[in-house]
Design goal:
Shape: globular
Low-confidence stretches: none
Radius of gyration: 22 Å
Number of strands: 17
Distance between the termini: 48 Å
Largest sheet: 10 strands, mixed
Strand order of the largest sheet: 1-2-3-17-14-13-9-10-12-11
Structural class: alpha/beta
Mean pLDDT: 96
Length: 546
């Protein structure tokens, strides 16, 4: 391990001086290498999670694995080309300044036929008010392509639940911040090691990437090693705080006096009690059903072992369609086969958060707890369950706008986390209360906010920055500090707003009711590997017949 870190130190020095053509060469070599191992990568993930050969859930390991990784590489490659030819990234639209803040379109991108494949979904990133509209890339561009004063080796502690997380965390550090990376895989998905070594061999050969596995001792060795300069962790808030403040009896005192034992920089993504607020209004049955499918899919995806899985549905108590809507979610989830609970401790967490015995600890039931009392069960708002339990909290409100403001305050002040939140609302409500909605969006302290769409899509799109709201700090990290992805190299992102209609056409492949989502995902991966309009007809056909 010491020799690997020594070589990474050499790589970090070379990266500081590396010209854009060489960086591009590495990116496109990695794209080809990921494509070559993609099938084996997905099969290994399905085997590890005990996903049956005929299961519709196999699509998750394609989309949240090699497909997302290739998308990141392609988009970042285009950004470097733009920097090479124009001096800065070319964003897909016009920067608008509202309420003293730059709002930058980040999706659909100009690449990958996004406007055709995802229309009319769109995303814009709002930047810190101090960022100048004429210099939205200055700091990030300097980190990416400037000659840094000190070469850096960063330890990336990978997440165990989604295979593209450790991959794109590492790639974000290498290409976005010009750091060499020592990636330690989580024991839960250490099986990815051989595929990552093959997929990122060009980076290994350039001494920009090294891989290790093991337990806490391995991680501590890397973190404390004098050859490493910083840490990035995707995991739990407890793991983060153990690293920063220690595990002994002086931990809380150190936190209170802001005296961390970690004397290196740290960035992080640390989970969320992800809330989804349903603004009262008159929805058609088709609109309700489509949103119920979206929410149900956000709960069942990856057995609910996602930091972005919906954990709290906020409703208006006197909304006439409330019970009908909750019944739809339960009906959809009842039709989804139970899956192997592969993440350690799932059954114990299920019993704690549902108050229901785990009669089959290996295959837990999808559970919606209606009309909870937040005083009697505060942990449902304050602790991330990381298991297949979602709660509904009904609040009193006099109107749609009253509900929006009350839900905003609730999510900011009573719900733990700053990663992502969602509003569902009718087009009539959005039009009538546009100013009120915009005010709520400005107030919400979340790194991603969905409108009628699961914010996890923002993670998979790669062009938006992904991370917790920057109001967090080391003493109260909440959902984490810093952002990854951010392929347009935007300075000091504050939040991304992801907008979609109530109903998406064709049927999204993340819906549990899609008939052949895996085929669509592979068609998309092949198109991402070698983008061409000739690949679109096959992709359109598989999408439209789902």
């Amino acid at each position: 391990m010491d020799e690997s870190l020594r070589l990474l130190g050499e790589g970090a020095v070379s990266l500081k001086e590396m010209a854009i053509p060489r960086r591009l060469e590495l990116i496109y070599q990695c794209i080809e290498a990921v494509g070559q191992v993609a099938r084996e990568w997905v099969e290994a993930a399905c085997d590890a999670k005990r996903i049956d050969k005929n299961s519709l859930a196999r699509v998750e390991e394609v989309t949240a694995g090699p497909l997302a990784t290739i998308r990141f590489l392609q988009l970042f490659g285009q950004t470097l080309k733009d920097v090479q030819s124009n001096g800065s990234p070319r964003i897909p639209g016009v920067v608008v300044k509202r309420h003293g803040q730059c709002r930058v379109p980040v999706f659909p991108t100009r690449q990958m036929y996004d406007a055709l494949l995802f229309r009319p979904m769109a995303a814009e990133t709002w930047l810190d008010p101090a960022v100048d509209a004429n210099a939205i890339h200055r700091e990030s561009l300097a980190r990416c392509c400037g000659k840094k004063s000190v070469p850096e080796v960063v330890v990336v502690l990978g997440a165990g639940n989604v295979s593209s997380i450790p991959a794109t965390d590492a790639l974000s550090k290498i290409f976005g911040e010009s750091c060499a990376v020592a990636l330690k895989l989580n024991p839960v998905n250490a099986y990815l090691g051989s595929f990552f070594e093959s997929a990122f061999k060009p980076l290994v050969d350039a001494n920009l990437f090294r891989l290790s596995s093991g337990g806490m001792e391995t991680g501590q060795h890397l973190i404390q090693h004098p050859a490493t300069n910083g840490v990035h962790i995707t995991g739990s808030i407890n793991s983060h705080d153990n690293i920063v403040w220690g595990v002994d009896s002086q931990r809380e005192q150190r936190r209170q006096t802001n005296q961390p034992i970690l004397q290196k920089s740290i960035t992080s993504e640390l989970g969320n009690v992800s809330p989804w607020a349903i603004v009262p209004g008159q929805y058609t049955r088709a609109e309700l059903w489509a949103q119920a499918q979206t929410i149900a899919s956000s709960i069942t995806n990856n057995v609910s072992f996602n930091c972005i899985a919906t954990k709290l549905i906020v409703t208006c108590r006197n909304w006439p369609q409330r019970q009908e809507f909750l019944g739809m979610i339960e009906e959809i989830m009842s039709g989804v086969p139970r899956r192997f609970a592969y993440y350690p401790g799932a059954a114990e967490r299920f019993e704690r958060f549902s108050d229901i015995p785990a009669t089959d600890p290996e295959r837990l039931p999808w559970t919606l707890l209606r009309d909870i009392d937040p005083v009697a069960a505060p942990h449902l708002l304050q602790d991330e369950s990381f298991t297949c339990v979602c709660a509904e909290l009904a609040i009193e409100a006099d109107s749609e706008s009253d509900f929006m403001f009350k839900a905003t305050e609730l999510m900011n002040e009573q719900v733990w986390g700053t990663l992502a939140a969602t509003f569902t609302l009718t087009s009539a409500t959005e039009k009538r209360y546009a100013a009120e909605l915009d005010e709520c969006l400005r107030k919400l302290r979340y790194g991603t906010i969905g409108i009628n769409q699961w914010p996890a899509l923002s993670f998979a799109l790669m062009s938006p920055p992904w991370g917790g709201h920057p109001s967090s700090n080391l003493q109260n990290a909440q959902s984490g500090i810093g952002f990854v992805h951010n392929t347009y190299l935007l300075d000091r992102p504050e939040k991304t707003i992801l907008r979609a209609p109530l109903k998406m056409m064709p049927k999204p492949i993340w819906y549990t009711s899609h008939r052949h989502p895996e085929q669509v995902a592979w068609d998309m991966l092949h198109m991402y590997l070698r983008p061409s309009p000739l690949r679109l007809p096959r992709l359109f056909w598989s999408s439209l017949t789902g």
